[in-house]
Amino acid sequence: MTPRTASLPHPRLPSSGGSPVVGTVTRGTTNPNRLRRMDRWIAAVHGAELRRAADPVAVDLGYGAAPWTAVELLHRLRTAAPRARVVGVEIEPARVAAARPYERDGLAFRHGGFEVPVSGRPLLVRAANVLRQYDETEVAAVWRRLCARLAPADPATGSRGGLLVEGTCDEIGRRHVWVALGPEGPRTVTFATRLGSLQRPSDLAERLPKALIHRNVPGEPVHAFLRDFDRAWAAAAPYAAYGARQRWIRTVRDLAAHWPVTDGPARWRQGEVTVRWEALAPRG
């Protein structure tokens, strides 16, 4: 189930290439190392797809007023896929001009928006803190447009195709929630946090992506999930004596008895848990 559909924001002026630029200018706030949790998850989960691709192109969509996140994405992806390339895409031309001095082998910057102005079909589109400033009713149409730009699945090789990772984090990247989507649509939701900063799992609610943040109310699946997460966290309190990581692992292990958790202890140790999208998708 996807959120309510709506038309995309009106195109802005044509880009330098002549194609209409789709979207609106965001605040552009960014900080170095802000997206480290998302990047590491992408490298771990999607690295195999990037390695076997003939041209593993990743897009940092809406990187903001400074190019740090695109520079860091290239570094982290290349730990898993040495041939990966990153294209930073921004809708504000001045931000693109400011980023150009940082271009190097494997890293380029382009003016554009949700039309994703790169040749071919990228293996990855990362859109962090972009849809936060849009209306919930616009999310489904943006997702469809971006998923249509992803590299398609190839059953002959076992490839699931490209990946869209869309989510929100706090200003210094301690708390982050994102949705992963393939060419077919949404797949999973991941909650990631610096465990030492966490009072309870529901603290992550304020970082839910736009598709879910207004659905954290009684009667909605994401509200029930966070309620159960807090209860499992409370029940795991004795494990706090061994550290926040052990308490988190025990919490997620108990949570997985009732919710479709898709990952295992190797990711839980990082302060993460990933759940199937269908279990948290909005009702109605």
UniProtKB/TrEMBL annotation:
GO BP annotations, alphabetical order: methylation
The record's region (Disordered) falls at: 1-32
| Keywords carried by this UniProt record | Methyltransferase, Transferase
Superkingdom as given in the UniProt entry? Bacteria
Q: Tell me, what is one Gene Ontology molecular-function annotation carried by this entry?
A: methyltransferase activity
The protein's name in its UniProt record: Class I SAM-dependent methyltransferase
